[in-house]
Amino acid sequence: MESFVKKGLSYTMDLILAITLSFSLVYAFTSTFKLAYKAQNVFIAVCIASIIYSILFINKLSLKIFAICVSFILVGMLVTFFTNPLEITLFIKNISSLTALIDKQVNGEIVLSIRYQRNIFIALNAIIPLIVYIFSVKKFNFYILLIGGTSVFVGQWIVENFRIYFSFYIFLFIILIYYLKYIYLRNIKLSKENNKVPISFLISCIPICAIVLISSYFLSSRDNPIELSWIDSKARHVSNNTKKGSNTGSNNYFKISSTGFGDDNSRLGGNVSIDNTLVMKVEAPESGIYLKGAVKEIYTGYSWESKKFGSIKLGSMLELNNFDDDLFELLQGSKIVSNETNILEEGFDKSFIDITYENLDIKTIFIPSKVSNLSFEPENSLYVVKDLYGILFSESIMQKGFKYNAELYKIDKNNEDIYNLLRRSKQGLYSEYIEHNYIGSEGNEGSRDYVISLEAKSKDIYNEYLQLPNELPKRVFDLAFEITSSVNNNYDKAKAIESYLSQNYKYTLMPGSVPEDRDFIDYFLFDSKEGYCTYYASAMTILARSIGIPTRYVEGYVLPERSTDGIYEVTNKQAHAWVEVYFEGFGWMTFEPTAPFLESLNNTTEEQILNTQNKTKKEEEIDDEVEDSKPKNNNETLKEEVSNNVNDIESKSKLFIRITIQLLVVSLLWIFIVPYFKRKIVIYRLKKYSSKQEIIKIYKRLLRGLSLQGLKINIGETPLQYAQRVDEILDSNDLSFKTITDIFNKACYSNEPISKKEIQNIIDFYNTVPIYCKKKLGKLKYFIFSNILGVI
Question: What's the whole-model pTM score?
Answer without folding.
Answer: 0.51
